[in-house]
What we know:
By secondary structure, this protein is α/β, with parallel strands linked by helices. It has helices at residues 32-39, 47-53, 58-69, 73-79, 95-103, 119-125, 153-167, 176-187, 189-192, 206-213, 274-285, 317-321, 339-343, and strands at 133-135, 148-151, 196-200, 218-222, 226-229, 234-237, 251-255, 292-296, 303-306, 309-311, 329-335, 355-360.
Amino acid sequence: MTDAKDTTSRKLGCHMQQSSGSLPGSPTNMQPRQLARRCRPRVSLNLGNYVKMAPLSFVTVVAVLFAAACADDGKRVLYGLGVHEDLGAAGQLPCADLLALYRSTPATPTTAPPDTLSEDLEHQFTLNGSVPLEDFFVDDTLDGKGTHYQYGPKDLAPHLASAKKIMQGQQAVHRPTDRWIVDALRAHESSIRGTHALVFGSNSPFYEALLLAAGAETVTVVEYNKLTYHHDAIINVQPFELQVPEGGFDVVLSISSFDHDGLGRYGDPLDPVADVRAVALARCLTRPKSGKLFLTVPIGPDVVVYNLHRRYGRKRLGGLLRLGMHPGWDVIEVHGWDEQRFNAEANFRQTYEPVFVLSPRSAARDEL
């Protein structure tokens, strides 16, 4: 499920690409003097030479140069995040154990999630009180009965047609995170063609249709509740049914899914570190070296909203991504990164979700 989002369309650091969704005070609207304070370039630049090169305005030249100087700021921040001691072990479980745990999830919800957390679980979810806890209760199990989303061929047809137009640039996408997903898929379209893709979490076939439009041969969709998308190239499974192709999936997509894991909202068992294990499992299921994970979760100051979702900041994001670690991930790129929004307080119901494109560290994958 993807919650409401709004932000600018920029890549890591101080990328200056203009976006229709720009916010006041964001780098796209800042003057050169403000950019200098934000970015702190670590190289000396001779502006005079660049001004003579082309008939660009001085402001444009300065903006481009500061963007280049600060292009790695987002990666520097992300790779600098530590792993909280309460999250470290969950991200290091062997792949076979992670898959076995995932497959042990009940086929259908048996009970609705509890209205509140026990004191012990509250301490675990909040990392011993270091992360704020908010309340926003949602029961997507239909009081324990479970759901069954179905799309027949006629229902899927407009999604598939729309996805083709979107990927070809003939139809606009309005939500910021969806724009960034499209940008990311387009950037890697050549490596998606003819591949086997996996989507974690779904209740409508928007992202599945985009993957097929990008040329994926098959798309496996794994969801806690029952799901049926009637299409020859779409495979619908629940966790206990998940099968892994030899070598892993070429492309894995998780759009606002893992932040819900372990909160019980969709009938999954309560588990304070289920999100960390889910990202670790995604690494195990992604083909080493050539495989990619396209991931979004709410980003900003840490908060656990029971049982709506989690938001990831400096305390929890490092443990979720495990960048540069074994086992862990490397960042290929991030679409939509805004460090200001990473640090600024915001309404937890209006989520900001940049798109992380990650590759598994090649030495990390063990046998399933």
